[in-house]
Every structure is written in structure tokens, then in C-alpha cells.
Write a structure and sequence with these properties.
mainly alpha; two-stranded antiparallel sheet
Amino acid sequence: MTRNHESDGLDIPNRIHARPVHRPGSLIAGIIVALLAVLLVHGMITNRNFEWPTVWKYLFNEHVLNGIGWTLILTVTSMLIAIVLAVLLAVMRKSVNPVLRGVSWFWIWFFRGTPIYTQLVFWGLFAVLIPTLSLGIPFTKINFWQMKTEQLNNLIAPGFLAAMLGLALNESAYLAEIVRAGLEAVDPGQSEAAEALGMPRTMIMRRVILPQAMRIIVPPTGNEVISMLKTTSLVSAVPFSLELQFASDAIAHRIYKPIPLLMVACFWYLVITSILMVVQARIERYFGKGFNERSNGNVTDGGDTKGEKPAAKVAEGHEGATTFLGLNA
């Protein structure tokens, strides 16, 4: 550790008075960015084509706020379904059963290989392809349950089920690869040690593998949630007419002013994504607590390796505990 000799009051001859290196580049870059930001804000405020009075008028419009609610519902429900499917697909991809691996590979290949807009259009036309859904004995006319597909699609709201399934199935393919990467990043010795202790495979996955994989899974999953929120603007292909983008477009078409309503939609999307980014950062901090503490450890005066603590300090406050290779007994 470097000692501050000036504070010791020592009279050292020929002492070097070091001065910090001047870095004008940072100051110049800051001035340029601030100037550009001022010009941008000034241009947006003074440009009458934005029609800011119309923006303030419809910012808290009833239909806009209702669209925000449906956008959030669509995002949450689609992501929950996608996460469940992604975990199943990732586990199937790592299975020793070739049939399960093949099904998982085909699912990921199909939903990643076709555009989301095309998939949403297909789900919107699903009632035309299959007018009736039924449950009964195959190859017979015996049905235990039967329902019109259009009636099922309009059960919650017109087009909601088709939009939710389209988003969820597409997202599950991307999340499955994220989950698989997180699972493969965990040291195989962890599961081997758990098996040696007699833990079943389901408990090993739930108590050993997944908690360690979450540190890798959470950041890209948070990005996918934000992406899902913005992708809901495409469900007009179903069509689903209650989400934020469709609601703002409907008002714009009615008053013939698209730009102010686009600004309204941009404002609310930015607000929601900003909140999601804060939540994502907190979740990442929670799952990375142990890792961050190890990687951000300080060098001690005793010359200990970065991130390591002397045995006396580790054992301090744990009387009666025996420490061996990081395990407490």
C-alpha cells in the first residue's frame, strides 16, 4: 500500500511535486456534446411542426392511458409464457434423449428463422385456417369439448390471445438460447458434487445450477423484456387494436396530426423502458452479489491476493466454525 509521506511531516530533500496530467480532450468533448444538446432541444422547442400543444393535450388521453395498460399486460403475459417455454426448451436441448433435442432444435430454428411480423399475421389468420378447436377421440366424430377459434381469440379482448401467443412463441426461441448459455456456463463439477450428495436431478437444477446461471441469464433477459415492450407495437398485424401504438395512431388518423401523437407514444415508451432498466439493474445486482464481492475485492496491507481475505478475518465472528476449502461446518 502506498503511504502518504506528506502527511507524516517528513522533510525529504529534492521531493518531486507531481502534478496531474492535463486532459483537455474531455473538456472539449463535453463542451461539444453540451452545445449539440442545446441546439437539439432548442430546435425541437422552436419547431412548430412538432405541435407541442397537441402533444400536451393527448399525453394523458384516456385512450392513450388505456393503451399503456394493455401494452404492459401484453408484455408481462407474453414474457411469462416465453420464460416457461424457454426453460423447458433449454433443458430439452441438453437432454440425452435425441427426440427431445430434435424438437427443441426445430422449435428454435423455426421461430428464430421467420420474422415476428409474419408470425403475428399468421396467428391473426389462425381462425381462418382452423375455424374450430375440439378435444375428443382422434379419427372419430366423438368430441368432449368444442369451441370456435374466433370466440376463443376474443375471450379476453379482440385479438389478444393471438397477439400474446405470437409474441410469446417467438420470444421463447430467443430466450431458450440465453437460458442454455447460462446453464452451460456453470461448472459441471457443481452438478457432479450435488449428485455425489444424493440430490435428484430436479433439485440439482433448481437449487444448484439455476441460481448460479441467473447471473448470466438475467442481463440479456432484461434486454429481451425491453425489446418485447417495443415489439408489442407490431401486434396491429393480428390485428390487436388496444395497445399504445395502435391507440395513438387511431387518434392521429382522426385528427390528421401524426407527428404529435408519435411524440406521445415515444414519451410513454421511454418512460416505461427507463423504469424497466432500473428494475433490471437491481435484479442484476441481486443475482451478482457474491460474484461482484469476489471480483471487486481490495488489496490488503498484508499483501493478500486481490479478492482474498486472511483466514483470521474469514473466521472472525464465526466461533465454533471450521473452514475448509470454502466450506463451513
